[in-house]
Structures are given as structure tokens and as C-alpha cells.
Design brief:
single chain, alpha+beta, 5-stranded antiparallel sheet, 2 helices, globular
Amino acid sequence: MPFEFLEHTSDLFIRGTGKSLKEALEAVAEGMFRNMGKAKKEGDSLEVESKGHSVENLVVEFYSDIVADCELNKLIPKRLEIIELDRKNLRIKARVYGEKGVPENIIKAVTYHLLKIEESKEKTIVEVLFDI
């Protein structure tokens, strides 16, 4: 499993692991989507593009944009595909696949609290705390 739910008293805390930052970010999104609802199909999609001024800020902005766009477009997300991850210019472009509907569980905010990005040659770990 590329993601795992970590122990937290009241919020949603997810650790994503991958061979790269891209894979770890996709893994965190998978856990986030599992919490948001149970989309059965991937017939609808939306594109998300985020910018940041640091890698940490980019990660928070990216997940915040996904949450806002899914709520605004009434999309229950199922899968995320990162199309472009530009580390130099701190930009992410991705496509979120799912089905029309209102997510069951609303994420109120993506926080900087406990945010962790750990990269090595073997793997990348990203931990994000979501306020639910």
C-alpha cells in the first residue's frame, strides 16, 4: 500500500511513500480520496494546476486546490495523475478522475502542521495533516 493513515486525535493524517516525490504525492492523494468518498467510476475529471514558493508550500497549495476544485465542481475523486511536476518553478499540473457527486466527507483545510517531506535515493515520504 503506497499510503497509510497515521494516528491522530481528531484529523486525517496520511503518509504517502514512493520512489519519487511524484509517486509519494499521488499516494497521499489516494488516501485523501478514500476518506472523501467512494467513487465507483472515473468517468469525469478535472485539471488542477498549483504553484508555490517552496516545496512545502507547493504541497499544501496542491492538496488545497484539489479539495476546493472537487467541492466546487461536485466531483467525488477516485484517482490522481500528476502530469507535470516542475521542481525548479515550483509548479504541479495534475488530473483528478472520479464521478459527479458531492464528496461524503469534507476536508476543511490542508495544514502545515506536521507536514513532512523526506527524500532519499531509495524512497520519498510525504506526510500531510488534513483538518476534517
